[in-house]
Design brief:
By secondary structure, the chain is α/β, with parallel strands linked by helices. Helices cover 29% and strands 30% of the residues.
């Protein structure tokens, strides 16, 4: 009986392996089991990873986000970021995303790079030196720099001839946005016996002193009033009405803001 079983096994393994029976049948069985176990791992573990690798995802809308915000949003979707170009955009702060490729809601594979255009903010220019030139020349200089002529205030002056710019606001050399308005203070020439009361409301104390000195008025008493709506030292009220003509050397009383 035992001999018959051995003979049968030899026939079976000999058929599987070849003409000769397998010398180590249990080693062969172990190899077969390992082979099928490997197939199971490939089917159940590896293949799902391969199939789902690089699944499609919708590109989010990055417009108006900062670079840091955009990187966080893209990372959550398996995407990355690359700055394609930077342009001047006066209406958007520097670092704000203006546009992107691919466009929002486009379906892409994970790992895709989203290229963006970022704002550099508004282009800035320097206010040219305007004091000492005629008002016409000052206007041409402003136009050349891409700036605009703002308000013009006329004041008497012993130091500057008539129609010559005394000072500008902002002052020369200040970096300002393109197309900004620049206000000028222009000379009326030699001061007459009477002067026009300037409007000092909203200016600070030091600036008010300078204006009064230039037109020949004196600062009288100063009163301080608590007012948190204005910066400390801001002129809240003046004793003489702006535009009124008074004698040179007259005193003007100012009310100045202060904090508690």
């Amino acid at each position: 009986m035992k001999e018959a079983i051995k003979t049968k096994l030899k026939q079976i393994f000999g058929f599987i392996w070849g003409k000769k029976p397998i010398r180590y049948p249990f080693l062969f069985l172990g190899t077969v089991v390992a082979f099928f176990f490997l197939l199971f791992l490939v089917d159940r573990v590896l293949m799902p990873v391969v199939v789902h690798w690089g699944e499609a995802t919708a590109v989010p809308d990055l417009t108006d986000l900062s670079l840091k915000e955009a990187e966080t949003v893209l990372k959550m979707r398996g995407l990355s970021l690359e700055v394609l170009t930077e342009v001047h955009e006066p209406t958007k702060p520097p670092g704000t995303i203006l546009s992107q490729i691919p466009h929002p809601n486009t379906r892409v594979r994970e790992g895709r790079i989203v290229k963006i255009t970022v704002s550099k903010g508004g282009k800035t220019v320097l206010v040219p030196k305007l004091d000492g030139v005629s008002i016409r020349q000052a206007e041409l200089l402003l136009i050349h720099e891409g700036l605009e002529l703002g308000e013009v205030s006329w004041v008497p002056s012993d130091s500057f001839p008539e129609d010559v710019v005394i000072a500008s606001t902002p002052s020369s050399g200040t970096s300002v946005p393109l197309a900004m308005s620049v206000n000028l203070r222009v000379s009326l020439g030699i001061r007459p016996d009477t002067v026009v009361v300037p409007d000092l409301l909203g200016t600070n104390l030091e600036e008010s002193k300078k204006i009064l000195r230039e037109i020949g008025l004196e600062l009288g008493k100063t009163k301080f009033k608590v007012n948190n709506d204005f910066l400390p030292g801001t002129i809240l009220r003046q004793s003489l009405k702006p535009g009124k003509r008074i004698e040179r050397g007259s005193k003007i009383i100012l009310e100045i803001s202060t904090t508690e």
